[in-house]
Write a structure and sequence with these properties.
3-stranded antiparallel beta sheet; Arc Repressor Mutant, subunit A; alpha+beta; globular
Length: 56
């Protein structure tokens, strides 16, 4: 079963980007994030949309 969310670090590794770039993508609205307590989690679905949009 694929996870629903990824940590900032895991999303950065998946995209081969740094943490700062991930936070910039969140601010720009290109990645969907949720706050769970003190953690910021990236929705895997939005990660897929970002990748698909970049390949077009």
């Amino acid at each position: 079963m694929e996870p629903i969310t990824l940590s900032i670090n895991d999303a950065a590794k998946a995209l081969s980007l740094g943490r700062t770039s991930i936070y910039a993508l969140i601010r720009e609205g290109k990645l969907e994030a949720i706050k769970l307590g003190r953690r910021t989690l990236i929705k895997v679905e939005s990660l897929h949309r970002l990748i698909e949009g970049a390949s077009k």
